[in-house]
Amino acid sequence: MGQIIAALGIIAALGIIGTLVGIIGTLGIIATLGIIATQRHSSSTNSEVTKKRERDNSSCSEEDQKIISSSSPSSSTPRWKHDVFLSFCGKDTRRSFTDHLYSYLKWKGILVFRDDESLERGTYISQELMQAIQESRYAIVIFSKNYAFSKWCLRELAEIVEWEEKKNLTIIPIFYHVDPSDVRKQRGTFAEAFAAHEKDPMVDIEESNTWRNAFTKVGYIKGEHINGDRYESPIIQQISEKILYNYKMLNIRIHEKQKIVGIDSRVGEILTLLHMESNDVRFLGIHGMGGVGKTTLAEIIYYRFSSQFEGSSFISCIRERSTTTPDLAPLQKQLLSMIMQQEIHILDYREGLMLMSTRLRNKKVLIILDDVDCEKQLTALAGDHNWFGPGSRVIMTCRDSHLLERNKVNRYKVEPLHTTDALELFSLSAFDETHPPEDYKDLSMDFVNYAGGLPLALDVLGRSLCKKPIEIWKGARNNLKANPKTKIFDILKISFDGLEESQKKLFLDVACFSGQEIYVNFKKIYSADVIEVLIDKSLLSKDDVYFKERLTMHDLLKEMGRQIVRSECQEPGRRSRLFHHEDVFHVLKNNTGTDAIEGIVLDFPLGGILGANHGEINPAAFSKMRNLRLVYFCDFAYVNFYDFRHIKWSGNPLEYMPSDKLQFLRWFKYPSKSWPSSFQPKNLVVLKMPYSCIEQLWTESMVLPNLKELNLGGCENLIEISDLSGAPNLEKINFSCCKKLSKVHQSIKVLKQLQELNMYKTQIKQLWEGFVDLPNLKKLDLGSCRNLIEMPDWSGAPNLEEIDFSSCTSLCKVHPSIEKLKRLQILNMSDTQIKQLWTESMDLPNLKKLDLGSCRNLIEMPDWSGAPNLEEIDFSSCTSLCKVHPSIEKLKRLQILNMSRTQIEQLWTESMVSFLLI
Fold it and tell me: Is Transmembrane tagged as a keyword (predicted)?
């Protein structure tokens, strides 16, 4: 037995996942019985539990992160929900090849849809499956000997072919122990199958012909033929790499074709410097002025060549993100997590340095560090060549060539485009052609000359003039000619002038109120079509930061927007937006505000407490700002959390703040204890007042029909939740770390749009009692609620996907209605007093992760039969647990099983070992 455990531990420690897929097969389990577990857990129980809750790994405390983040920003629905849809005959391959393929694709980070075994009982495919096909980028069709006998498979294939013809769905056929020509011509067992169907009175001839046509079409597509003459594991890896490569190439094509004009010669020059064939580690800095195309060039190299490396990571907007996360640990976490294909926990910058310098030494990696502007960033993310394995390449984009020179980084300067390429780029943006029409040729050349070869200016300018009459072109050209000292901002402003008012408003909001949280919440305030127009005109773009979508804007465009606002009036109080702290204090101290002001951001720069210099402020200064929409006091600069305690107010600011048009209010450490009854912000969409002195929001129900997010995390004086029935559209609520909060208002039970509820580290004893109607609730955090004595009835929240009861040290029972949570994926009950999870088999078909670590009273495992899709189970430090339930062998998808520091003497029986090694 010891040999088995040791062998599995060594395999897991070496990370030979491909070997596990090939040898262990359907389970692919990583057993952590002390060998690895000792690395994950400290000797202290409290330390174990604490480490599990270090989620964002920044320099601020765990509680701060809970409150500030509220939760992960919700991404908008992507065009493709799945990367791959698997079509297969369960009778032939479900527990063999298909399962191996599924496990490997998933391990590589590819999103795979595989139907539930229970779904294949019928003959007509469900609406769910049809939708899954339509939302997939690839369909892998595994033809096996019984595939054609299944009407289910045939109808699935017909839908795949139909959708391939309608949309950009790519089909990859796998001929599993069948001849491709037999598929094309429906011979052999396929002929038998079709003959049987055609005799079936339930199948009409038209449907049968559709199936045959689908078979013929897919049979002619080049795929993989598996006939037993080679190992299957390399074939699975090839399929995975093909999908990943095509995915990256697709991202190149998704990049507007205008953006890659003249790129090939530059890529060639960079490849010469990178010398990809060399086995040494090379750093390269791509530098040049803003808007010249450094990031686009780095993106093209990344997408074209990352498939040649064992791991890759693209970290964008480093300069901007470093101002909000000064310790850089989140950037280190993102880089490592992307390369290692799993979430890496990093406590702080120094731990990040240690992990960065050790975890990648044996990996050939490609890393892009975009917009680096200081040595600390280089030290944190690419401190030395010996951090990375042989053949690795690290590319950084930078405006400061001296920074690269000081750090002895080889350099490549990006020059502006030559006239020919510049004209082509402009023409593609303006006319969707490589050359302008004859009557626009001279005008186009004028604009090209003004843009000075900068791709950003050429693209934005061309898009702003696209489909506009020639008179508009001439007017724009004449305006530029009238100013012989035209600067890049004047050129870019032409695109701004052509926007509608709502589009201008969004543009200036993004330009002036930078910061990830603001970006995320713009999507709650503005309609999707307004955002899409700015994206289409290259004035905004979408970016993914560690799998979280946000809106971004180029620095030149951002500065142009701020210059537009500054030019509105010399007196800051007469401008539409206040975004510099000195301007904000000037207006508040001197009471110079007017109804021109629509937004205020008060956010201190790094490295100093500035609030102490401004004395007492009269909040009556707000009263003149009758068009105020956005108020944002303090961003994510953690080191300055306590600047706000030095600002003294002579009254309650909300008593004077006009509320009619207010949509976004975030006030960190709001100074007053009460919410004035006169403050009725009926248009409010987001309300965030973390770490405030508030004891109670409103005494009676407040009518807030548009409110979607409420965050009062860390308000230690908050003693009760106000009536929320007047805010029926709330989607996210955060009361985490409200340490005096002991009751939940019953109005929370009927918030039908509520998706996330965070009550972490409060004093509540009971969440709700009786019936609730929360059909959209997906995420519930009750971690560290040490007075919580019982679970609620889950019947009214059937769509929960994630529940956290960790460190609820008074909780000893699981409510039986948990079986109603068919969509539950993550359940964390670590460090609770439960003795038994459930007595009989529970039907939890989507449960993937179960954490029961440090449940010292847990005496037995549950029956696993009803949770067949579990992938990760943690029983570490369950010191009363001594037996493994035999139904564990039914967990075909289990990948990680942690049972360190339990009383178990035998992990599995001989029959279970044979199951593992199928």
Answer: yes
Predicted model pTM: 0.67
pLDDT for res 485? 58
pLDDT, tens digit, 9 for 90 and up, residues 387-430: 999 999 999 999 888 899 888 899 999 998 999 999 999 999 99
For 233, 519, 666, 787, the CA distances from 581, given in Å and listed in that order, are: 59, 20, 16, 42
What's the token pair of residue 629? 């929409």
Asked if 731 is an active-site residue, the reply is: no
**Between vectors from CA 572 to CA 569 and to CA 524, what angle results, nearest 5°?**
100
Q: Which residues contact 169 (CB under 8 A, 6 or more apart)?
A: 133, 136, 137, 138, 139, 160, 163
Backbone angles phi, psi at 457, to 5 degrees: -65, -40
Q: Supply angle C-alpha 721, 714, 678, rounded to 5.
A: 50
Q: Which of 212-221, 550-559, 601-610, 659-668 has the lowest mean pLDDT?
A: 601-610
Q: What is the spatial distance between Cα 18 and Cα 225, in angstroms, rounded to a whole number?
A: 20
Q: Give bridge partners of residue 171 from the DSSP assignment.
A: 139
* Mean pLDDT in residue range 272-290: 92
Could you say which DSSP state residue 85 is in?
E
- C-alpha 755/C-alpha 776 separation (Å) is 5
- Coil, strand or helix at 456: helix
Q: What is the mean pLDDT of the chain?
A: 82
Residue of 62, 135, 156, 598 with catalytic role: 156
The interaxial angle of helices 488-497 and 470-482, nearest 10 deg, is 150
**Angle at alpha carbon of residue 64, lines to 63 and 65, rounded to 5°:** 90
Q: Name the percent of the chain in helix, strand, coil, to the closest 5.
A: 40, 15, 45
User: What 3-state class would DSSP assign to 571?
Assistant: coil
At residue 577 the predicted structure's pLDDT band, cuts being 50, 70 and 90, is very high
What is the tens place of the pLDDT at every residue in 871-894? 999 999 999 999 888 898 889 888
Which two structure tokens, joined as six digits, stand for 707?
A: 């409110």
DSSP category for residue 101: H
Model pLDDT for residues 765-817, shown as the tens digit of each residue: 988 877 789 999 999 999 999 999 999 899 999 999 999 999 999 999 999 89
- Tokens found for residue 100: 């191996």
Exposure letters 513-535 (e unless 16+ CB within 10 A, then b): bbbbbbbbbbbbbbeeebbebbe
Give 526-573 pLDDT, tens digit per residue.
888 898 888 888 788 776 544 456 677 887 888 889 999 999 999 999
Provide the β-strand partners of residue 226: 176
Q: What is the pLDDT of residue 307?
A: 74
**Cβ-proximal residues to 218 (8 Å cutoff; 6+ apart), any chain:** 141, 143, 157, 160, 161, 171, 173, 183
Using DSSP, state whether 781 is helix, strand or coil: strand
What are phi and psi for residue 31, nearest 5 degrees?
-90, 125
Q: Taking the CB of residue 43, how many other CB atoms lie within 10 A of it?
A: 8
CA distance 242 to 598: 50
Q: In what order do the strands lie in the sheet with 82-87?
A: 112-113, 82-87, 136-143, 170-176, 224-226
DSSP of 590-609: HT---TT--EEEE-PPTT--
Distances from the Cα of 377 to the Cα of 298, 318, 455, 651, angstroms: 18, 8, 27, 42
Buried b (16+ CB within 10 A) or exposed e, 589-617: eeeebeebbbbbbbbbeeeeebbeebeeb
Task: Say whether pLDDT at 77 is over 50.
Answer: no
* CB atoms near residue 255 (< 10 Å): 15
- pLDDT bracket for residue 644 (50, 70, 90): low
Round to the nearest angstrom and report the end-to-end CA distance of the chain: 18
Assigned token pair, 202: 């339930």
